[in-house]
Write the structure tokens for this entry.
Amino acid sequence: MTVRTGPTHLLASRRAFLRDAGVYLVTEEALSGGRSSVEVARAALQAGVRIVQLREKEGTARRALEIGQALRALTLEHGALLVVNDRVDLAIAIGADGVHVGQEDLPVAVARSLLGPDALIGLSITDARQLAAADAAEADGLGVGAIFPTGSKADATDTGLALLGAARGATSAPIVAIGGITVTSAGEAILAGADVVAVISAITMADDPGAAARGLLDAVTAARARTGARAGAGVSTSSGGGR
């Protein structure tokens, strides 16, 4: 039996990078107003977003690979992290920094065995009871939600802000709030316990994705100032990029 003695230096850097990122863009080309995910991600990265998750639920695996390869080049250019939703095989194929898995996907330990010890592995939390499971303890970050009602994920269950507080009390890992988050509610999520807010349509469907990203980053920075948390403006981008 292999016992983990702690994160590698690169993984520790990626965890810290995630915690300080502020805003986490999740792609969805079908929800991008006729634009490509690459176009939306470019605008968000230019605005200061430093973590992108490839999540393309519609379309073929080959199209997702094409988008992922382009996003890998973009995130490397901007010193940002690239994470793949669910698909460990796709993360390997594009040299992503990690994956984000759901409760019904591969266990965190299995994903790590396939991706290696440096991979950043996030886990979705939709119920407080999941916080006591081994997966939650082994994950590098928890994606908590849907915090608010969302149209971006048809099967999402609204959890409200209380689950963020429960997660904050259960882990020292970075917490990412997701689900229905907008520029007006992002601060609420941070004050309730999140380190980062993840969004799809708040950026992808915006008339100006870059301006939307800047607005979200500003909202997170303002909420962090109220909690005394570090705003992340001085985060080194050296932890970005492929393994």
Observations:
- Residues 230-243 have pLDDT under 50 and may be disordered.
- The first strand starts at residue 23 and ends at 26.
- The longest helix spans residues 209-227.
